[in-house]
Amino acid sequence: MSLLELLGYFNYWVFAIVLSIGLYTVIAKVNLVKKLIGLSIFQSAVFLMYITMDKVEGGTAPIIQKGMENQVFSNPLPQVLILTAIVVGVSTLALGLAIVVRINESYGTIEEDEILDAD
Amino acid sequence: MIIVFALFLLSLLVVTALAIVRTENLFVAVMLTSIFSLLMAANFFILDAADVALTEAAVGAGVTTVIFLGALALTAEREKYAAGGGRVAVVVVAILAALIIYATFDKPRLGDPDAPVHQHLAPWYLEKTPELVDIPNVVTAVLGSFRGYDTLGEVFVVFVACIGVLFILGVQPEHKLPPTASISAGLKHHLIPQVVGRLLIPFIILFGLYVQFHGEYGPGGGFQAGALIATGIILYALLEGEEEALRAIPRSVLMGLVIGGACLYGGVGLLCILLGGNFLDYSVLAADPVTGQQVGILLIEAGVGMAVCGALLSIFHAFAARTIRP
Amino acid sequence: MIDLALDSLSWVLLCLGGIFVLIGGVGALRLPGFYTRLHAASLTDSMATILIFTGIMLQAGFTLATLKLLAIMVFLLLTGPTASYALANAALQSGLKPDADQLGENTAGDAS
């Protein structure tokens, strides 16, 4: 495959790598706040994949001004989905952090193995 | 030439993600997450997604960092153990990454106009928006009118998250210490940030209102505007202190904003039923169907902006008003 | 002719701005101690901002985009140095003294 075709896949490879980094943080780290940070990295990688799919060569942002003929636009549909997903992600993050704060007050620690030992 | 810039930004993303995993200090990890969100926003802009870039920058790099810092002030500062899971996790994750990379070779390359995702539905939206809704920003038209149910569900999700955080953090712990004066007095000894902040906060709120009402003509809309206005008021709370901010905009007003926003959205839908159309069918709101669609989108964007602003501010106050750990 | 002069002037300004960003970044990594690093990093907020934005404004010509860029530049020039001041003040309040003899060791917090 030529270099240009390889470059076309670069976005997807970055998506795979950042996804696995986020997943590793959720699985392997024992600190609860670190796990939440890993979760938000995971979500951002998924957003990157969706927005990568919406680009059209030579296109521009899908804003139709008056008198613009023969203009190629990028796909508006993944953008709508990801707009919703970003706000929902922030909501779940806030809720998760509130639970972590309460866990810290009950158990005195936010390391997962210390919490499991104390139970 | 833009390709080189895009490749550079994507590599920076990977480097930042690796740095987040490896650092032990949680404050450093939160700051790096904010940088990660900003790099993501730049990437989205290069990929022609202007609305999404604005939302990611406002919500991800702005509000998420503040909420994380608020939670970190109430919990620990450092991660205690260096690396917990170890070998098995690395192997599993490496296999997953290899499988995904192998699977992406089947995907259409970046920017292919013949990709399946660009057929059928997207050209229909791009054609029909000037006829049926007649606003320049297609993303707002799809978000507000063609896919209005999804946005209604999203406003309800934000509402539920706000209520959930208020339930969880609204109960004070038993061993409550009185907050020391210097913490709750804000940045009283720091004159320069106060002066600059007072200069800038009106403009931030004005810009938030601009983004709200220009959502139909350019990138913008309810979510970004709500996050921007919430950021301006959080800046005021950081500079003047928690009690001052609560006196300026009390909690009852914030709850009223959240509930009012959600009810406005649902109310517009019910109004459409009462006027003879379907639920959230804005064509019946005015004499001309196209004007009706525009009026409907304006009203629901206002509802979304109010709900998001009130919810983010309530969540911030729930974290900030909690007693500092002894 | 005047177009060529404006174009090359904007090129020169953009390259100079890039060099200043590089100097600020290298300084933030290599200098010892917190306050010297902050001093180097604040170079990016002030000098590089002015150079890069003036370069872009010359490229944009007399359009609405130039006014918006001017507004963004004023905003960045107001908030960047304020942020550096707030950082330095927070460090001073929490006990980190600017010591002329320190070579990479810090007493309070970590300056990573």
Provide structural commentary.
The complex is a heterotrimer of chains A (119), B (326) and C (112). The longest helix of chain A is centred in the C-terminal third of the chain and has 31 residues, at 77-107. Chain A has one domain: Helix Hairpins. Chain A has helices at 3-8, 10-28, 32-52, 77-107, 112-118. By secondary structure, chain A is mainly alpha-helical. Chain A has five helices and no strands. In chain A, helix 3 (32-52) runs antiparallel to helix 4 (77-107). Chain B is mostly helical and 326 residues long. Chain B has two domains: 1-112; 138-326, no CATH class. Chain B has 13 helices and no strands. Chain B is globular and about 65 Å long. The relative contact order of chain B is 0.11. Chain C is an all-alpha fold and 112 residues long. Chain C has one domain. The longest helix of chain C has 30 residues, at 64-93. In chain C, 12% of the residues are buried. Chains A and B meet through helix 1, helix 2, helix 3 and helix 4 of A and helix 1, helix 2, helix 3, helix 4 and helix 5 of B.
Q: Descriptors for this entry?
A:
heterotrimer, A: 119 residues, mainly alpha, Helix Hairpins, 5 helices, B: 326 residues, 2 domains, 13 helices, 73% helix
What is the gist of this entry?
Chain B has 326 residues and is an all-alpha fold.
Largest interface, counted by CB within 8 Å of the partner chain's CB: A-B, 83 and 104 residues
The number of helical elements of chain A comes to 5
Structural category of chain C:
mainly alpha
What is the percentage of strand-forming residues of chain A?
under 5%
Report how far apart the termini of chain C are: 50 Å
Q: What is the general shape of chain A?
A: elongated
Global outline of chain C: elongated
What is the number of domains of chain A?
Answer: 1
Could you give a short account of the major beta sheet of chain C? none
Low-pLDDT stretches of chain A: none
State the CATH architecture of chain A: Orthogonal Bundle
Helical fraction of chain A equals over 70%
Radius of gyration of chain C: 18 Å
Counting DSSP E segments of at least 2 residues, the number of strands of chain A comes to 0
Class by SSE composition of chain A: mainly alpha
